[in-house]
Amino acid sequence: MKRPTKRLKLLTMTDMVDILLDFDVVHDAEVLITSEKENETDECYGATDHEGSRIMLCDRFPQGVRRLTILHELYHARDFREGYESLEKPVEKISERHYAKLFGHKFLGKRK
Ligand SMILES: [Zn+2]
Question: At what angle do helices 63-81 and 88-103 cross, to 10 degrees?
Answer without folding.
Answer: 130
